[in-house]
Amino acid sequence: MTIASKEETVPGQWQRAQKRNSPGQQLSRLTSKRGMGKILAGGALILVLGGFWYYNHRASDQPRGPRITAAPVRVTKVVARDMPVVERTIGTVVAYDTVQVTPQVAGRVQSVAFKEGQMVKKGDLLFQIDPRPFEAARGQVRGQLAKDQAALDGARRDLKRFQALLEVNAESRQIVDDEAATVAADEGTVEADKANLQTAELNVEYTQIRSPVDGKTGPINIMPGNIISVTGTTATVNPLVTISQIQPVKLSFVLPQTDLPRIQARQKTGALLATVDLSDSGGKNFTVPVDFLSNAVNNTTGTIELRATDANTDAGLVPGQLVNILVELSDIPGATIVPHEALTAGPSGQYVYAIESGKARQVAVNVLFDDSRNVAVQGDLKPGDEVVVDGQLEVVPGGAVQIVRDGQAAAPQNAGGKNRGGKRNRS
Questions:
Q1: Ranges 14-23, 87-96, 202-211, 217-226: which has the least confidence
Q2: Which of 32, 181, 323, 374 has its CA 20 to 30 Å from the CA of residue 50?
Q3: Radius of gyration of the chain measured on its C-alpha atoms
Q4: Residues facing residue 401 across a β-bridge
């Protein structure tokens, strides 16, 4: 039995497959697909170009809004009122008196009668130096004084007897004169002994070192058991302790020498006061009179020192502490005042921008006083004029401005048009 092959059983199907897979038919199909792709791409391009033309044609037919070329600014009004001239500066708390306690006699420190940082009164015992050597020296001087005093008393009695004998011609004048010289010499010896005794008593007294002022003690530099030596009247060791008088204290500060005429005029009236601002440290402000004006201006800094005195009853101020000080020097009556933000510095000096009929006018001003919030100026300004306080960088002299009120946003730079890179065209 003969079995026919697959090709022989389906000859029609095989022949059709061969025709579909022939090179000519494949090339024809590929060419047909590429043509269709080009047709679709061209149609899409036509649609895009048509839409772009339509959008621009329609937009060009619509009227554009006016271009905004005015600089947006914020303004405030010029006022006229009396302005106090108040200088603000940093002051330093200075001890009313500072004493370095040093010994006046040498010896061993026996005891200390206070604690470091303690408040002491004038005359309080601070240190005790061993007094025994000085008490012995005092006793020796007293003995010598008694001896010399006895010799003086004997010489005086002898002189009286010789004088009585001389009156009855029982003694010669020479003997009387010699005895008078002896009395004078003994008197000198006794006086020297008395001075030595006084020195010895002072030395004994100096073994007790007492506070010379009311104040607060610092650290103790010499502890009991140490021996201190003295050369002449100067201690060869560090001070035993330093005492600072802090009730009252002084407040030292400096002001520019340009304020000197105001300071002197205010001082003559007795109204030169300094206000100490302790609000930063949680304290209360207080005012004290200025009672010292230096006799020279510091030629390095161009300032002059002033001082005020405070009782410091609560000991709240400590020497070396820095405090804020305000000094009212004078008043500028009827001053033309603008905010500090309105002031601008240029090559020719300081100026402000005043608004007139929607345009900016540059007005040169002379600053009389600036307290960092308000400025008293001289210039072509009058009360009620509006001056620019914000936006000066966008303003040109004579240029148009757009006043922006509080709570109002600035208008777009090109209304109805496009904002190209955020740049503003100026007229």
A1: 14-23
A2: 32
A3: 53
A4: 71
Give the β-pairing of 71-77 and 401-403: parallel
Contact 216, 246 (CB under 8 A): yes
Task: Give me 304's structure tokens.
Answer: 């002059």
CATH number at residue 384: 2.40.420.20
Provide the domain count of the chain.
Answer: 3
Nearest of 134, 121, 86, 120 to residue 277 by alpha carbon: 86
Q: Which domain holds residue 126?
A: 99-242
Which tens digits make up the pLDDT trace of 378-406? 999 999 999 999 999 989 999 999 998 86
The residues, any chain, with a CB within 8 Å of residue 118's CB and separated by 6 or more, are 216, 217
Residues 291 and 342 occupy one common structural domain: no
Cis peptide before 248 (omega within 30 of 0): yes
Residue 26 within a domain: no
Last residue of a domain, one of 183, 208, 242: 242
CATH of the domain at 217: 2.40.50.100
* C-beta of residue 113 within 8 angstroms of C-beta of residue 241: no
For 214-263, what is each residue's pLDDT tens digit? 999 999 999 999 998 887 555 455 799 999 999 999 999 999 998 999 89
Three-class SS state of 5: coil
Q: Are residues 182 and 292 in the same domain?
A: no
Tokens of 232: 């002449």
pTM of structure: 0.61
Within this chain, do residues 149 and 258 fall inside the same structural domain, yes or no? no
Given 223, 242, 261, the domain boundary residue is 242
The residue assigned the tokens 């005895």 is 179
Helix (H) or strand (E) holding 133: helix 132-167
Within a domain: 39: no
Residue 324: strand, helix, or coil: strand
pLDDT (mean) for 191-209:
96
Which residues, in sequence order, are CB contacts of 334 under 8 Å at separation 6+?
80, 81, 82
Report DSSP state, residue 294. Answer: -
- Mean of the pLDDT values across residues 280-300? 90
DSSP H or E run through 140: helix 132-167
Residue bearing the bigger pLDDT, 226 or 47: 226
Q: Tell me the HSE value of 95 on the side-chain side, using a 13 A CA sphere.
A: 16
Q: Does residue 148 belong to any structural domain of this protein?
A: yes
